[in-house]
Amino acid sequence: MSEIPAEQTQTNLTTPETTTESSISGVENVKNSLGNVLNSWKLKVGLAVAVLLAVSLFAFYWQHIIAVVGMKSWSARSGAQPIECMVRDTNNDQYVSCSALLDQQIVPLECSSSLFNIGCRVNYGTAAANPRQMNPR
Description:
137 residues; alpha+beta; four-stranded antiparallel sheet; 4 strands
């Protein structure tokens, strides 16, 4: 009577083996499903489209990014507050139109869109006339 029945002994011994086998098969299932996803043509096409879109957006905004760097640099040196730059060079002169606030007046700037010529120049051609300098007769 002190003997343990064979059915109970086998059940107790096989329980740890079953959990080990199920955890290994779970890991293998995850590896297989992850491998299937990474080998999927849909993922590869999606990544290619995402990279192409990112490069296109970066190329489109490149002139704006360089002009903003120049505008912030000019504003820091002149004590002005940078406002904003246009997105693109509209007249193909390699300068993007920007503006800054200096002594409560808006200063029109032309900031370079070239990486080798970062900086801005004041665009006096579009500046408003100063009413004090006009001498009426």
